[in-house]
Amino acid sequence: MKKRNYYLTTISLIFLVIFLYFAHNYMDAYIVRILNLCAIYTILGLSMNLINGFTGLFSLGHAGFMAIGAYVTAILTLSVNSKIQNFFLEPIAAPLANVEWPFFPALLLAGVLSAIAGFLIGAPALRLKGDYLAIATLGFAEIIRVIFTNTQNITNGALGLKGIPAYTNLWWSFGIAAFTVLFMALLINSSYGRALKAIREDEIAAESMGINLFKHKVMSFTIGAFFAGIGGGLMANLLGTIDPAMFKFTLTFNILLIIVLGGMGSITGTVISAFIVTISQEALRFLDQPMDLGLFVIPGISGMRMVVFSVLLMIVVLFYRHGLMGTNEFSWDKFLNAISLKKPLSKGGKYNGNA
Amino acid sequence: MINMTWEMFLQHLANGISLGSLYALIAIGYTMVYGILRLINFAHGDIFMMATYFAFFGVFFGLPWYIAFPITIILTILLGMGVEIAAYRSLRDAPKISIMISAIGASFLIENLAIVIFGGRPKAFPTEELFTKVVYIGNISVQRLTFIIPIVTIILLVMLLYLINKTKTGMAMRAVSKDHETAKLMGVNIDRTISTTFGIGSALAAIGGIMWGLKFPQIQPLMGVMPGLKCFIAAVIGGIGNITGAVIGGFFLGVSEIMLVAIFQGLTGYRDAFAFIILILVLLFKPTGIMGEKISEKV
C-alpha cells in the first residue's frame, strides 16, 4: 500500500512538471499569469491558514505582510535605470539607489523582513485574546500602507513602482508553492503542529498540558508572515507594477475567502480553493463589465464581483462552516476508495452497494 | 517648532472635541455589542456609512431635515437589527472565529452593495444652514455644529446610561452580558435583548453619521471603514464593554488626533496610523483600557 501511494505521488508530480513545462512554453500569457496567481494564492492561503486555521488565531494583517514582501523584492530587483525613471518626484534614498539583487536572495530577504514585522506586531497583540489580534493586525496592515504611501524616497509613495522585472514564472511560483505545501505538511504533523492544533481546540487545556502558548502562537504567526512576504514578493515580480492601494483590506479578504472555502485547518482544501477562487476572480470579471445580450445591453456594475464573493463567504460561514474539506487532508487511499466502482466490503465481508 | 497662538489652540481644541464626540457616538455601538456578544461588529462602520446615505437620499428627495433625519435613524436601526439576524443569530453557538468571519463578510457585503447601488464616486452631503452657520467668538470662527455635536453626544450618553442602569430593558442587557445561560433561566429573552442592543448601537451610529455628513460633507461607500476601526480603538482605549469609557476614549482619540496634526504638521500623512499606534500602546501597557475591568476567563 505504502509503495503504491509513493508511486502514485511520484507519477502525479511528474505529470505536474510536464504540464508546467507545456504551459510555460506553449500556453498564452494570460493563462500562464492566472496559473501563476493560483500558485501564489496557494502560498498566501497556506500561510494564513497556518495562523487562522491551524492555530485558531484571527489575523487580518496579510495585506500588510504582502506589502512588505512586495516592496522589498521590487526595490531590490529594480534595475538602477528604472529606479531613476520611477523616482522622478524625489530621488531614491542613497543606499538603495545602486542595489540590484538577483531574485532569490531578494525574495528571501522579503520573507525575513516580513517575518520580523510579524514578530514585532504579534508579540504584543498575541498576549491578548483573539479579537484584539484581529483589530491590531488589521491596523498594522493599514499602518504599513500609510507608511509606504508617505515614504516618497524609499517606496515612491502613492505613485508606486513600475517596470519591476518579471522574474516570477511558473517554475518559481509552483516550486515555492510545492515547498510551502511540503513545509506546512511537515510542520502540522510535527509536535509543534500538534501543539498548535491543541491551542486551537482549547487554549486553557493546552496550557495546562504544558504547551507554552505565547511561544507557539508567536512562532505560527512569524512563519505565516514569512510566507506571506514571499507570496507578496512573487506577486510584485509577476505583476510588474505595485502601489500602496493594491494592499488594501480587499486583498486580505480574498485570502480569507480562500481558507474559509477550503476549510480552516486543511492544507488540501486551501490548495483546491486557491485555484477555485483565483480562477473565478478572472471568470467573473464579466460581471463588472457591460454585457451585450444581443437585444439589450446590461451595463456593467463595478463592485458586483465583490458582492458575489462576499455573499459566497457568508453562505459558506453560515451554512457550510467546514468548507470543502473541513480539517481533512487528501490521501491516495481515500481518493481511490472514492473513485473506485467497487465499494469496499464492510466488516464481516458483507457486500454493500449495487455496483 | 510649535508655533501656535492661543486662538488657534482653542480652534483646534473645538474641532478635536467635535470629532471626538462623533467617534464617541460610534464607539458606544462597538462597546455595547462587544459587551453583550464578545464580538467586534465589523459591520458597524458600514452601518454608519449607510446612515449618511439614507440621510443624503432623504434630503435629496426633498424631505426637510426634521423628517429625513428621524427616518434615517429608523432605517439604520432596521439595518443594524437585520445584520444581527442575518449574520450573527444563527452562529450564536458557533466557534468564535466563524462569527468574526461572518462579521467581516457582512461588512464587505454592505460596502460592495453600496458601491453597486450608490456608485463609487463621492457625493456631496446637503448642508443645512441651521447647523453649519459659522459663528465668531472673539477671533475664533467655528460652525454651530462644533457646539451642537458634543452637546448631542452628552445628552445621548445620559439617556443611554439611564436606560441601562434604571430600566428593565437595561437590566436585561446587563444580565445577558454577564451570562447568557443564567439570563435565559431568569426569563430574559436573549434574542430580543441582543436585537435591542444592536438597535440602540445603530441609532447612535445613525445620529453620528448624520452629524458626520454635515461636518465633512463628502460621502462615499468606503467612508465607514476608517472611522469604524478608529472608533473600535476608542472603545478599547476607554475599556471595552464600558459605555462611559467609550465616550472618554472617543474624546481622547479625536482631540489627540487633531492636536497631533496641528502641532506636528509634517505628520499629516500619518494621521490614520496614529490611532493604531495608540491601540498597540494600550494593548501593551493597559489592555483593560481606562475604565475597563479585568475579565477572567472561565474554564
TrEMBL record, chain A:
Which residue windows are transmembrane per the record? 6-23, 30-51, 57-80, 101-126, 132-148, 169-188, 218-239, 251-276, 296-320
Molecular function terms from GO: branched-chain amino acid transmembrane transporter activity
Instruction: Give the UniProt keywords, A-Z.
Output: Cell membrane, Membrane, Transmembrane, Transmembrane helix
Which membrane topology term applies here? Multi-pass membrane protein
InterPro entries reported for this sequence:
ABC_transp_permease, LivM-like
The entry's localization annotation reads:
Cell membrane
Principal localisation = membrane
Its Gene Ontology cellular component terms are: plasma membrane
**According to the lineage, what is the superkingdom?**
Bacteria
- Protein name (database record): Amino acid/amide ABC transporter membrane protein 2, HAAT family (TC 3.A.1.4.-)
TrEMBL record, chain B:
* Bilayer disposition of the protein: Multi-pass membrane protein
Q: Where in the cell is it found?
A: Cell membrane
Name the source's superkingdom: Bacteria
Gene Ontology molecular function, alphabetical = L-isoleucine transmembrane transporter activity; L-leucine transmembrane transporter activity; L-phenylalanine transmembrane transporter activity; L-valine transmembrane transporter activity
- One family from Pfam that matches here is BPD_transp_2
Q: Name one GO biological process term.
A: L-isoleucine import across plasma membrane
* Residue ranges of the TM segments: 20-40, 47-67, 73-91, 98-120, 140-164, 194-213, 273-292
Which keywords describe this protein according to UniProt? Amino-acid transport, Cell inner membrane, Cell membrane, Membrane, Transmembrane, Transmembrane helix, Transport
Any one GO CC term of this protein is: plasma membrane
What family name appears in the similarity comment? Belongs to the binding-protein-dependent transport system permease family. LivHM subfamily.
Protein name stated in the entry:
Amino acid/amide ABC transporter membrane protein 1, HAAT family (TC 3.A.1.4.-)
